[in-house]
Amino acid sequence: MGYYDENNNMRTNRQSKRGMSWFLPSAFGAAVGASVMLVAGPFVSNIEQPSSNQAAVTTTANEDVAASNVSYNVSSDITSAVEKAQDAVVSITSYQGGFSLEDPANQSGQAASSGSGVIYKKENGQAYVVTNNHVVEGASSVEVTLSNEKKIEAKVLGTDPLMDLAVLEIDGKNVEKVAEFGSSDQLKTGEPAIAVGNPLGFLQGSVTQGIISNPNRSIPVDLDQNGQPDYEADVIQTDASINPGNSGGALINIKGQLIGINSSKIAEASVEGIGFAIPIDDAQPIINQLEETGEVKRPVMGITPASLAEVPTQYWTGTLNLPKDVEAGVVLMGISPNSPASEAGLKERDVIVKLDGNEINTSAELRKYLYSSKQVGDEMKVTFYRNGKLQTVTMTLANQNGI
């Protein structure tokens, strides 16, 4: 299954690249460093050390001081939240080639990528893991390492490049913990957020703490890495550290509930503390479809869209014959045969400006409206310019996998 069939032949100079990258105005840089310092203090044999739950008291010989024991409670809400969710987070390694756990002595495959995943369900002897699409994309085999370090081969049930999600199935024999779903719709700026994952590919079970910086951030997504956004994704922004390898891991709330799937991080010298997670309320319908059918059903028009801003301005009033006051919209670069767009009478070089009366300025906005507001089989009014004249047609949306 590929991303959005309408975009397959959009431009001949596009190159298919693996993975999902968040399209951002500045260059994307990553700098990862890790250092561990162990400081050991010498033990002094003639000094009695206070126990961990007692306070040490220093006095002079002539002072009459009443000694008392002080108890310290080291547990906290954050500790409790981590204990509740940590064992449901796994490490994922994707291999290319002939790797198999069944015959470890005869291997030709190599680890292609690593990331994290979250066990969200256990049923009928099987367990199900959600992770990022880019963690398993192109893999010939996938290995899951549980929190108890047991390794299990995984079957990829389905992937969704658009939302950067994938669902895996594993033997549930050794699975002891399943994540509890929370709600991302009720998140508030400033509330605690905890990221759990496998940073750098080998620090399994690492935990970082932060806050919800913005519970409903929209960012452009460039799937084919051509420099043009293909979709506007709604994400949770957090300053909890999300490092390479954390992809697919859990973002949890103070109750230890899963509120997001970690997906990316900005790591620049000038930008610190910006991480993104897929909201769990947006992810759940996708997860369910991938588990049940292996694919996601989305409505399509049957067009190859391009934002008007991508077209040189000299063609706006010439080739496209647009009125001078039209400065945004979506140009139809192609129409699929027997598609909703074709049956509604749309043609190449038509410029869409509204869907159901809502202004559409870019191809990313067009897709977001389709995927968030419409279903397969819905009717939709399309307002567009053709040869300088504003027109409106109605179409019935089809399944993207049927065109």
Number of helices: 5
Share of residues in helices:
10-25%
Instruction: From the 3D structure, determine the CATH topology of the largest domain.
Output: Thrombin, subunit H
CATH superfamily of the largest domain: Trypsin-like serine proteases
The CATH level-2 architecture of the largest domain is identified as: Beta Barrel
Report the sheet with the most strands, covering strand number, pairing sense and barrel closure. Answer: 6 strands, antiparallel, barrel
Mean pLDDT, all residues:
80
Number of discrete domains: 3
C-alpha-based Rg, rounded:
26 Å
Please provide the ordered H/E string of secondary-structure elements: EHEEEHEEEEEEEEEHEEEHEEHEEE
Low-confidence stretches: 1-74
Widest sheet, order of strands: 8-9-10-13-12-11
The percentage of residues in β strands lies in 35-45%
**Shape call:** elongated
For the termini, the CA-CA separation is 13 Å
Q: For this structure, what is the CATH class of the largest domain? A: Mainly Beta
Describe the protein:
This protein is mostly beta strands and 403 residues long. The protein has three domains: 86-171, Beta Barrel (Thrombin, subunit H); 180-293, Trypsin-like serine proteases (Thrombin, subunit H), CATH 2.40.10.10; 299-402, PDZ domain (Pdz3 Domain, Roll). Helix content is 11%, strand content 36%. It is built from five helices and 21 strands. The chain has helices at residues 77-85, 133-136, 280-293, 340-344, 363-373, and strands at residues 21-22, 89-96, 110-123, 126-131, 141-145, 151-160, 165-171, 192-197, 206-222, 231-238, 250-252, 258-268, 271-279, 299-300, 303-307, 330-335, 351-355, 358-359, 379-386, 389-396, 398-399. The strands form four sheets. Strands 8-9-10-13-12-11 form a six-stranded antiparallel β-barrel. The radius of gyration is 26 Å and the shape is elongated. It starts with 20 loop residues before the first strand and ends with a strand. 39% of the residues are buried. Belongs to the peptidase S1C family.
